[in-house]
Amino acid sequence: MKVNTTRWTKAGWVALVVACLQAAPAAQASDIEFAAPLNGWRNTGGDSERYTQDVHYPAVTVSTPEGQSKFALIEGQIRNAPKKKGTTVGTLVVDGTPLPQRVEEDGKFSRPYAFPSGSNGVELRAPDGSKKRVQFYDAYSGKTQPRLRVILAWDTDGTDLDLHVISPDGAHAWYGDRVTPNGGALDVDVTTGYGPEIYSSAAPLKGTYLVYVNYYGSGNTGSDMTVAQVTIITDENTPNEKSETIRVPMRKAGELTLVKTFVIP
Questions:
Q1: How far apart are CA 151 and CA 85, in angstroms?
Q2: Alpha carbons 107 and 93: distance in angstroms, whole number
């Protein structure tokens, strides 16, 4: 009987690991390209941007308004990713808040976003696990700051959840009335999966807010359950910033859930 007495040296193990990594087909961070935002310093003084977006039903995805400023936009492309039929979903992390991001068949992604002044960071995590981050500083101190954001996202395609926010004066922001007299606004109504839908106010009234999620409907077969994720951010990009995320299972169409009651002092 012959015994294999081959011994691996440290150099041999290193060479083997390097060879395996080189053979791996997964996309690398260098395959993710951001067209906006870009790293560095900028000043958006005098720049115009839109917050609310036109909705053409069924609203398959968050769409970028025509003529949207590059300073209020997240867009790019994942190159050399394995081709898949239909869209996939990655994750955008904007200033620490994770959001689902639909990625088209050609790897392109795009959505408008109203960034506050100061330091901002955006990271895209692709469906294959690769990721890339950009960091920039907006020096325009006169920019309107979103002192309150309420963000709704959910984890299934082919489903329609709706965000409802009731402010202390009784104003109700929802897909049927997205801009309220007190200045609060809901940016878009996504009807076929993932979201996100974002309520924002630059001067939120003091008092009690109610956040509801309505499971409007589902086009999926089989299990209709989806998990809603609501993130509430106050005083964004300031030393007093606070963020809270609540996850709630939504089991069937027609369900209306009070997700959170909070107070702006």
A1: 29
A2: 18
DSSP classification of residue 145: P
Is 139 in the same domain as 166?
no
Q: Which of 91, 111, 143 is the last residue of a domain?
A: 143
Residues ≥6 apart with Cβ < 8 Å to 3: none
- Read off the pLDDT of residues 32-53 as tens digits, 9 standing for 90 and up: 999 999 999 999 887 766 666 6
CA dist 170 and 178 (Å) reads 14
185 and 178 in contact (C-beta within 8 Å)?
A: yes
Instruction: Look up the domain containing 136 and give its range.
Output: 27-143
CA distances 261 to 125, 233, 258, Å, are 31, 13, 8
pTM of the model: 0.77
pLDDT at 15 over 60: no
**What pLDDT, in 10s, does the model give residues 54-67?**
665 555 556 666 66
